[in-house]
C-alpha cells in the first residue's frame, strides 16, 4: 500500500507540474502562433493557417512603426537602472552586514525597503507624474530610470543582504588584520564572491524594469515609450491589430528569455546562496 501511495503521490506531483507548465507556456505558444497569422485568420479563430511574416515585416521595417526604437528605450532604461540599483544595493548590503551600523539604522533601512516593496506601484505613480512634470522631466529617460531604480531597490537590497551574509566573516577579519581598508575588502573579497548573487539580483531587476507597464505608461512620451507601452497602442479605438500585437509581444520576450537561458546558472546559484545561510 505504501508503494502504491508513493507512486500515486509521484504521479500527482507530475500532473500538477505539467498542468502548471501548460498554464504558463500555453499562452506563449498561442501568442507565437498568432504572430504568424493574418488578421482574418486570428479573428475567425483558425487553428492552423499558412504562416506569414507580414506582421514582423510591418513591425520592424515599416516607416509607420517605431517598435525598434521602443525596444531600444526598454533596453536603455533596463540596463542603466539595473547597474545603478546593483551598485547602491551592494554597497547598502555591505554596510548593513559588515560595517555594523546602529541597529536602529539597520531596522529603518530594511523596514523601509519591506514596506515600500509591499505597496502597489500604482500608489506612487500619480505622485511621480506630478513631481516629474513640475521638474520638467516628464517624458525623459531620467524620469523612468529614477522610478525604476526606486521600484527595484528594496527587493535588490534584501537579496544582496542575504548573499553577503554567506561570505565567511573570517575572510573579512583576516583581510582587516592584513591592513586592508573596508574599501579594499569590498573590492577584493566581497565583489568577486558575490558575483553570483549580483547576477541573480541584476537579472530580476532588469526583467522587472523591462516588463514594467504602469510606470512607463505615465512617465514616457512618444520618443521615450518602452516596449510594453508600445504593445498596448496596437489596441486602437476602432481596430485591434492582433497580428502585430502578437509579434511585438514575441519580440519583447526574447531579451528576457536570452538573459535567463544564458544566466540561469548564476541566477539559480545566487538565489540558493541568498536563501540558505
UniProtKB/TrEMBL annotation:
Membrane topology note: Multi-pass membrane protein
Transmembrane segments: 12-32, 75-97, 109-131, 143-168, 189-210, 245-262
Pfam families attached to this UniProt entry: BPD_transp_1 (PF00528)
GO CC aspect terms: plasma membrane
Record GO biological process: transmembrane transport
Keywords, comma-separated and alphabetical: Cell membrane, Membrane, Transmembrane, Transmembrane helix, Transport
Entries under Gene3D superfamilies matching the protein: MetI-like (1.10.3720.10)
Domain ABC transmembrane type-1: start-end pairs: 71-263
Subcellular location: Cell membrane
Family note: Belongs to the binding-protein-dependent transport system permease family.
Protein name: Carbohydrate ABC transporter permease
Species assigned in the record: Psychromarinibacter sediminicola
